[in-house]
Specification:
The structure holds two protein chains of two kinds. Helix content of chain A is 38%, strand content 28%. Chain A is an alpha/beta fold. Chain A has a domain of 161 residues: P-loop containing nucleotide triphosphate hydrolases (Rossmann fold), CATH 3.40.50. In chain A, helix 3 packs parallel to helix 6. Chain B has one domain. In chain B, helix 1 packs antiparallel against helix 10 and helix 3 packs across helix 8. Chain B is globular and about 60 Å long. Classes of the chains: A alpha/beta, B mainly alpha. The interface between A and B is medium-sized, with 32 and 21 residues. The complex binds adenosine-5'-diphosphate (ADP) and magnesium ion. Adenosine-5'-diphosphate (ADP) binds next to strand 2 and helix 1 of chain A.
């Protein structure tokens, strides 16, 4: 059974149709990516799936539960969260306080401490900077903080919206290797990227989104070899 | 000594402004709206004190507690009925609704209590003499209570789960939701706290001067709003600073018979000058652009 199943999702901004009925699914244990050009509707898909922006039509099933109309804060408690585009960490709070916000729904102190240790192990740089005001971190560190913050609830499904955006190539590699590590450790991942080659390389399956419609889907390998994808997204 | 007395008076009326300014600033920070009916919540607090302490003879401190509860419930109700349906509507629509709400509260109060002043004398407050200085007990009570309340609020925001959620919502509502924070709940709490503080402000105001009428909150509301903007709207320490500054300026202006008639003009001129120098207020932060 799919962990996340999205059927015929439709989203409008006023009269403008941003998603024209898209369907996709993510099985437990997979890395699935959604690639598409700027403005294709990737962020819209992410935000409407998790309940930040309203859906006009379609349905979303997560972990066997219909969450089409569930408010975002409740969806998060079910174990699905996302690292939003542009990171959106709490700039005025410290690194540690940001992680506390990530664990907002975690009541168990012991679990909180264990989760905190785990993310500091994954991101030692953040451990060194735990008292630093988050707004003063570098772009790469902010991305790591945004990911750690999302990991604080031990999500079953982690959604990442362009985690490599605006980062130097060496950091991009680092972020992708962390995503692979998280996946190995058992987290199911839905990844949205403009950096198609990197995303396809690590994905079990992938979808191509073009102006609000899914035009292609297949395994990561298949899409990497598809002439359309190569022409449009892989610069070849 | 005269100087010190003026300063103390300024501090006490300033902390009343700060109480009110906190309501404006917290609601602005979290719901991103200007609640122009906030001043009128003070008025409702004033009438609650009148009904409970004067008409029914309840102990003034119990009456204060009642006023706090009434104001908090009123604030939350106003948000649910008038503002919540307008989330996502144009800021102008929300502003006009808030102004309408302000007039509605004033009109209802006038329908119930008429336009004549009602006298709310809660305690027999005297003066105490320190050396050659005369300080009214009102000043001391106001200063002490406000100091405790403001310190408590600051600690609440910094060190409690809900307080931190308030900071998160004010910084980024969507990111806050992704943390599992129920934004509607945080907005409700904010209106409740802001309105409870308005009840305290109303209490301090009737301690200083007993007449209560339907426009009791109008002028203090506008001045406190100005104070919140001077301090940097959205900033809690800013509202405290702005309120106190406002009180001190007012107090000094009023001691000089030549300047006194222009007190309000001076206060608003300060606003204009500060906004010219620092458009986001003294402690306001420039919004960092999101990538
Ligand atoms: N808040 C909004 N209001 C109106 N249109 C929007 C809004 N957000 C996105 N859009 C439009 O919806 C389309 C999809 O945007 P988006 O989901 O951000 O794409 P992507 O993440 O793939 O770059 C674009 O045409 C964009 O201009
Ligand atoms: Mg996007």
């Amino acid at each position: 059974m799919a962990l996340l199943e999205v059927n015929n999702l439709e989203v409008y901004y006023g009269v403008i149709c941003a998603l024209k009925g898209i369907s996709f699914h993510v099985n437990e244990g997979e890395i699935v990516s959604l690639i598409g050009a700027n403005g294709a509707g990737k962020t819209t898909m992410m935000q409407s799936t998790v309940g930040i922006i309203p859906k006009k039509g379609g349905s979303v099933i997560f972990d066997g539960q219909d969450i089409t109309k569930t408010p975002c804060h409740k969806i998060v408690q079910l174990g699905m969260t996302q690292v939003p585009e542009g990171r959106r960490i709490f700039q005025e709070l410290t690194v540690y306080e940001n992680l506390m916000m990530g664990a907002y729904t975690v009541k168990d102190q012991q679990r909180f401490k264990a989760d905190m240790d785990r993310v500091f192990e994954l991101f030692p740089r953040l451990a060194e900077r735990r008292k630093q005001i988050a707004g003063t971190l570098s772009g790469g560190e902010q991305q790591m903080l945004a990911m750690s913050r999302a990991l604080m609830i031990n999500p079953k499904l982690l959604m990442l919206d362009e985690p490599s955006m605006g980062l130097a190539p060496i950091l991009v590699d680092q972020i992708f290797s962390i995503i692979k590590d998280l996946h190995k450790a058992g987290t199911t991942i839905l990844l949205v990227e403009q950096n198609a080659s990197k995303a396809l390389e690590i994905s079990d399956r992938a979808y191509v989104l073009e102006t609000g419609k899914i035009t292609l889907s297949g395994t990561g390998k298949e899409l990497m070899q598809s002439p359309e994808v190569q022409k449009a997204y892989l610069g070849g | 000594m005269k100087l010190l007395e003026t300063l103390l008076n300024g501090l006490s009326s300033g902390s009343t402004y700060a109480m009110i300014a906190l309501g404006y600033t917290m609601v602005y920070g979290i719901a991103k709206m200007l609640n122009f009916a906030h001043g009128d919540v003070i008025m409702v607090g004033g009438y609650t004190l009148y009904v409970s302490a004067v008409m029914m003879g309840i102990h003034p401190l119990l009456a204060l507690l009642l006023a706090i509860i009434c104001c908090a419930v009123l604030g939350v109700t106003i948000e649910k009925l008038a503002y919540k349906p307008l989330r996502g509507a144009s800021p102008l629509a929300v502003l006009i609704t808030a102004i309408g709400m302000s007039y509605l509260l004033q009109s209802v109060a006038q329908m119930i209590f008429g336009s004549a002043d009602r006298m709310v004398r809660l305690f027999d407050l005297g003066r105490i003499t320190v050396g050659s200085m005369q300080i009214s007990t009102y000043t001391i009570i106001t200063l002490a209570c406000s100091a405790v309340i403001m310190a408590g609020l600051s600690l609440f925001v910094k060190y409690t789960r809900i307080g931190r959620a308030m900071i998160a919502v004010s910084e980024d509502k969507d990111a806050a939701q992704l943390m599992g924070i129920n934004v509607n709940f945080i907005i409700t709490i904010t209106f409740a706290i802001g309105s409870a503080l308005a009840a305290f402000a109303g209490f301090f105001m009737v301690l200083k001067s007993p007449p209560v009428n339907s426009t009791l909150g109008a002028m203090p509301g506008i001045k406190a709003f100005t104070a919140a903007v001077i301090g940097g709207i959205g900033s809690i320490p800013g509202a405290m600073l702005g309120g106190i500054l406002m009180g001190i300026v007012e107090s000094f202006a009023q001691t000089n018979p030549v300047i006194a008639p222009f007190t309000v003009a001076i206060e608003f001129s300060i606003l204009i000058v500060i906004l010219l120098v620092r458009p986001s207020g003294i402690l306001g932060k420039k919004r960092r652009e999101k990538v």
